[in-house]
Write a structure and sequence with these properties.
6% of the residues lie in helices and 45% in strands. It has 393 residues and is mainly β. The strands form three sheets. Strands 8, 10, 11, 13, 18, 19, 20 and 22 form an eight-stranded antiparallel beta sheet that branches. Strands 1, 2, 3, 4, 5, 6 and 7 form a seven-stranded antiparallel beta sheet that branches. A seven-stranded antiparallel beta sheet has the order 9-12-21-14-15-16-17, with no helix packed on it. It starts with a helix and ends in an 11-residue tail after the last strand. Residues 1-35 have low confidence and may be disordered.
């Protein structure tokens, strides 16, 4: 023991490092390695402190040390761990590496709070049970200071055990954005092409807009038929060709002009058309009378959502889709003006053996006589919902 103390003292005297205490080692590890683990789709925020409902000797601070061989553990459903980021900030998810995450599927809930007293549930889910690496769980962006993960057991027992956890910033990582068609180039060059009888039918304008400097004004007269097909149309085309099994989020804004006609005939303003040449598209947003509707599966298909038509006001859409011809795999989910208006619904979103592509503008029944005018803006295609919804308190 004397030799050890003497060696440390000599090291200090000679300018070398003194031996750290175990507590100092843990503190240094947390300081140095807190961001070392990969956190997919997550930009971690700094954590000021962490508390938990209890522990078995594996303390909550272990979840911030950058090591997968340490953990926080507590026995009992409802056990929670709570991260304080020190100030109210915009948060959008958590990234968690579960202890023995390749053997256990954990049931858990994520809640946020500004004051540490009042909490709101923002995510309910289950870990994959296939990996010990971090999995990221995104939720609608919101302002919060504290983020709490409550574990309700797993498929093997009632233990709560997290190896590492991070609080994710709300900002979308740039790599998540696949494509933008927001007209901020001042033209339609962001799009693959157009089907229009004249350039003034798909006109980039500076007013009205809902973001940036530009939006697109779509106009359709009776008889507009640029591709010698059924109905009248002027539409932009984006060849997205999403493969079967892929999952994307689409954001856009549409405003119907005050003069937009009320007709008990179909008027499509957004559609994902199949690669075949005939038949109704598998996904179509349209107006019928005084309603906006979403139809899946062609004609007759299934009407899965409707809402009152509002004129002269921008409506913000976020459409979440998994593309598949298998109704047990494909699904749709819809947010309107920042609110979830259609929870996830499993349904076939492609026709067997075919891909889809996006068409935006106005396509309507040829019997409609009045001029149709509407506006589009904000078009974005992303791999995640991060940054697509407004931040809430």
């Amino acid at each position: 023991m004397c030799w050890i103390v003497l060696t440390a003292a000599l090291a200090v005297a000679m300018g070398g490092p003194a031996m750290a205490t175990p507590a100092e080692d843990r503190a240094a590890a947390a300081q140095t390695n807190a961001l070392d683990i990969p956190t997919p789709r997550c930009t971690p925020l700094a954590v000021a402190s962490v508390i938990a409902s209890g522990h078995d000797g594996n303390v909550p601070e272990n979840t911030l040390d950058g090591r997968l061989d340490t953990r926080w553990s507590n026995l009992g459903k409802g056990s929670w761990i709570d991260y304080d980021i020190g100030t109210v900030a915009k948060v959008g998810g958590v990234s968690v590496a579960w202890h023995e995450g390749n053997k256990r599927r954990n049931d858990f809930v994520v809640s946020t709070s500004n004051d540490g007293i009042h909490y709101k549930v923002v995510y309910t889910g289950q870990s994959s049970g296939t990996t010990v690496d971090a999995e990221t769980y995104r939720f609608d962006p919101r302002k919060a200071r504290r983020v709490r993960i409550t574990v309700n057991g797993n498929n093997l027992n009632d233990w709560a055990s997290l190896a590492e956890a991070r609080v994710c910033a709300a900002k979308v990582p740039p790599r998540e954005i696949v494509w933008r068609g927001n007209f901020e180039t001042g033209d339609i060059k962001q799009w693959s092409g157009a089907q229009m009888v004249d350039p003034d039918r798909l006109l980039v304008v500076t007013s009205p807009v809902t973001q940036g400097r530009y939006a697109m004004k779509t106009t359709v007269f009776q008889g507009d038929d640029p591709i010698d097909s059924s109905g009248n149309r002027n539409e932009l085309v984006q060849v997205t060709n999403e493969p079967s099994g892929s999952e994307y989020f689409y954001k856009w804004s549409t405003m119907f002009d005050a003069s937009f006609p009320s007709e008990r005939h179909w008027q499509l303003f957004t559609q994902w058309h199949h690669s075949g040449n005939s038949g109704s598209p598998p996904v179509e947003f349209y107006v019928y009378g005084e309603e906006m509707r979403l139809n899946i599966g062609g004609s007759p298909g299934v009407q899965v959502w409707q809402a009152p038509l509002v004129r002269n006001q921008w409506r913000d859409f976020v459409f979440h889709v998994k593309w598949s011809s298998d109704p047990k795999v494909g699904f749709v989910e819809l947010y309107l003006d920042g609110q979830l208006v259609m929870p996830k619904r499993y349904i076939a979103t492609q026709y067997p053996g075919q891909l889809n592509y996006l068409k935006v503008g106005l396509y309507r029944d040829e019997v409609i006589e009045p001029v149709g005018i509407l506006y589009h803006d904000k078009w974005t295609m992303s791999r995640s919902i991060d940054g697509l919804l407004p931040v809430t308190d």
